Protein: Nicotinamidase
Amino acid sequence: MDPATDVFVVIDVQVDFCPDGALAVADGGAVVAPINRLARRFAHVVATQDWHPAGHGSFASSHPGAAPFSSVELSYGAQTLWPDHCVAGSPGAAFHPGLDLEPVQLIVRKGFRQAIDSYSAFFENDRTTPTGLGGYLRERGFRRAVFAGLATDYCVAYSALDAAALGFEAHVVLGACRAIDLGGSLASALAQMQAVGVGLHHGDDLA
Structure:
């Protein structure tokens, strides 16, 4: 690792994605301990936070008659509909209480535009609206981004794929992630990441 040019990006380790949360990822709380260990190995750490307004367009409750985990067409294409989750300022939007935020130098909030969901740490789901993270990493001179968090097959994968597309060397620590695996989404995400050269580390460390 190069402390000057490596950054660790912690994706959406929030109450609503952990056990008993509104959109709980199976075993989601298990990512906290390895992420805390990893963060202490990096000189630079960024965290992302899903931050939706009430009635967000990605919520099934915003589409009468629609069921959670079904799909609709929005202005930017197909969108999976989710249970209401990570509503800005709510307890469920908070970081997991066990997550060590002391090493975190930047928190990027995403998904706050009413009509656009945002999986990636770099772009919203219209694939054109940037979060600003890419510019931040470039201005600070980072070259390699290492990702962990929730969920492997959505926000982690989208972030790693975008990092690679933007020219960063991207890695995912799979043992410090957990997946939703909706309709084969995990296998698809892993294949996509492998295809573009994202480094996949199967334990909970970089070894």
User: Anything to note?
Assistant: The helical segments are 32-39, 133-139, 152-165, 185-195. Residues 152-165 form the longest helix (14 residues). DSSP finds four helices and eight strands in the chain. Residues 29 and 118 are 22 Å apart (CA to CA).
